[in-house]
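Fig. S4 source data, part A: sequence.
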Amino acid sequence: MSEIILRKLGIIAQNVTSSLSSINAISLTFDIWSPRKGARGFGCLTAHHVDVSGNPVSFVLNFKRLKYPHTGDAISRFIGDTLILHKLEGEIVSITTDNALNNISTIRKLESSLNLGHALYSFVH
Protein backbone atom coordinates (compact mmCIF):
# COMPACT_ATOMS: atom_id res chain seq x y z
CA MET A 1 0.00 0.00 0.00
CA SER A 2 2.75 2.50 0.88
CA GLU A 3 4.41 1.92 -2.52
CA ILE A 4 1.16 2.83 -4.28
CA ILE A 5 0.82 6.01 -2.21
CA LEU A 6 4.45 7.00 -2.85
CA ARG A 7 4.03 6.37 -6.57
CA LYS A 8 0.85 8.51 -6.64
CA LEU A 9 2.63 11.28 -4.72
CA GLY A 10 5.46 11.17 -7.26
CA ILE A 11 2.98 11.56 -10.11
CA ILE A 12 1.25 14.46 -8.35
CA ALA A 13 4.61 16.15 -7.70
CA GLN A 14 5.52 15.81 -11.39
CA ASN A 15 2.15 17.26 -12.41
CA VAL A 16 2.58 20.23 -10.06
CA THR A 17 6.11 20.86 -11.35
CA SER A 18 4.89 20.63 -14.94
CA SER A 19 1.93 22.95 -14.27
CA LEU A 20 4.17 25.58 -12.66
CA SER A 21 6.96 25.35 -15.25
CA SER A 22 5.35 27.93 -17.55
CA ILE A 23 4.60 30.39 -14.74
CA ASN A 24 7.15 33.13 -14.06
CA ALA A 25 5.45 34.93 -11.15
CA ILE A 26 4.70 32.71 -8.18
CA SER A 27 3.80 33.79 -4.66
CA LEU A 28 4.41 31.50 -1.70
CA THR A 29 2.77 31.16 1.68
CA PHE A 30 4.42 29.29 4.51
CA ASP A 31 3.44 28.41 8.06
CA ILE A 32 4.34 26.02 10.85
CA TRP A 33 1.78 24.52 13.20
CA SER A 34 2.82 23.16 16.56
CA PRO A 35 0.52 22.50 19.53
CA ARG A 36 3.22 23.62 22.00
CA LYS A 37 6.91 24.38 22.14
CA GLY A 38 8.97 21.26 21.53
CA ALA A 39 5.98 19.28 20.24
CA ARG A 40 5.54 17.70 16.85
CA GLY A 41 5.21 20.51 14.33
CA PHE A 42 4.22 20.57 10.68
CA GLY A 43 5.25 22.95 7.92
CA CYS A 44 3.27 23.77 4.80
CA LEU A 45 4.51 25.60 1.69
CA THR A 46 1.90 26.65 -0.86
CA ALA A 47 2.41 28.21 -4.32
CA HIS A 48 -0.09 30.69 -5.76
CA HIS A 49 -0.43 32.28 -9.21
CA VAL A 50 -3.06 33.65 -11.56
CA ASP A 51 -3.82 31.63 -14.70
CA VAL A 52 -4.33 33.08 -18.20
CA SER A 53 -8.06 33.48 -17.50
CA GLY A 54 -7.37 35.52 -14.37
CA ASN A 55 -8.33 32.74 -11.99
CA PRO A 56 -6.30 32.21 -8.81
CA VAL A 57 -4.57 28.82 -8.65
CA SER A 58 -2.87 27.27 -5.61
CA PHE A 59 -0.82 24.12 -5.08
CA VAL A 60 0.47 22.68 -1.83
CA LEU A 61 4.14 22.13 -2.67
CA ASN A 62 5.13 20.48 0.57
CA PHE A 63 3.51 19.51 3.87
CA LYS A 64 5.62 17.58 6.31
CA ARG A 65 6.68 17.19 9.89
CA LEU A 66 9.33 19.64 11.03
CA LYS A 67 11.22 18.60 14.10
CA TYR A 68 11.75 21.12 16.85
CA PRO A 69 13.52 23.52 17.05
CA HIS A 70 12.13 25.35 14.03
CA THR A 71 15.28 27.33 13.26
CA GLY A 72 15.87 29.58 10.27
CA ASP A 73 18.31 26.96 8.93
CA ALA A 74 15.76 24.15 9.18
CA ILE A 75 12.96 26.19 7.63
CA SER A 76 15.15 27.52 4.80
CA ARG A 77 16.21 23.95 3.96
CA PHE A 78 12.53 22.90 3.91
CA ILE A 79 11.57 25.78 1.58
CA GLY A 80 14.77 25.75 -0.51
CA ASP A 81 14.68 21.99 -1.12
CA THR A 82 11.03 22.25 -2.14
CA LEU A 83 11.71 25.10 -4.58
CA ILE A 84 14.62 23.19 -6.11
CA LEU A 85 12.51 20.02 -6.40
CA HIS A 86 9.85 21.92 -8.35
CA LYS A 87 12.42 24.04 -10.27
CA LEU A 88 10.99 27.32 -8.95
CA GLU A 89 14.11 29.06 -7.61
CA GLY A 90 13.92 32.08 -9.94
CA GLU A 91 10.13 32.40 -10.19
CA ILE A 92 9.21 33.63 -6.71
CA VAL A 93 7.82 37.18 -6.43
CA SER A 94 6.63 37.09 -2.82
CA ILE A 95 6.70 35.01 0.33
CA THR A 96 4.03 35.54 2.97
CA THR A 97 4.51 34.17 6.46
CA ASP A 98 4.22 35.45 10.00
CA ASN A 99 6.79 37.73 11.58
CA ALA A 100 8.42 35.16 13.84
CA LEU A 101 12.15 35.80 14.16
CA ASN A 102 12.98 32.39 12.67
CA ASN A 103 10.95 33.24 9.54
CA ILE A 104 12.85 36.51 9.08
CA SER A 105 16.10 34.54 9.39
CA THR A 106 14.73 32.03 6.87
CA ILE A 107 14.08 34.74 4.27
CA ARG A 108 17.61 36.11 4.66
CA LYS A 109 19.09 32.63 4.19
CA LEU A 110 16.93 31.98 1.11
CA GLU A 111 17.94 35.32 -0.42
CA SER A 112 21.59 34.35 -0.21
CA SER A 113 21.25 30.71 -1.26
CA LEU A 114 18.65 30.94 -4.06
CA ASN A 115 17.79 33.46 -6.76
CA LEU A 116 15.29 35.28 -4.53
CA GLY A 117 16.88 38.71 -4.39
CA HIS A 118 14.04 40.31 -6.36
CA ALA A 119 11.23 38.81 -4.29
CA LEU A 120 9.00 40.97 -2.12
CA TYR A 121 8.29 39.68 1.36
CA SER A 122 5.14 40.26 3.34
CA PHE A 123 4.89 39.24 6.98
CA VAL A 124 1.35 39.00 8.23
CA HIS A 125 -0.87 37.31 10.84
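Fig. S4 source data, part B ends here. The mean pLDDT is 80.
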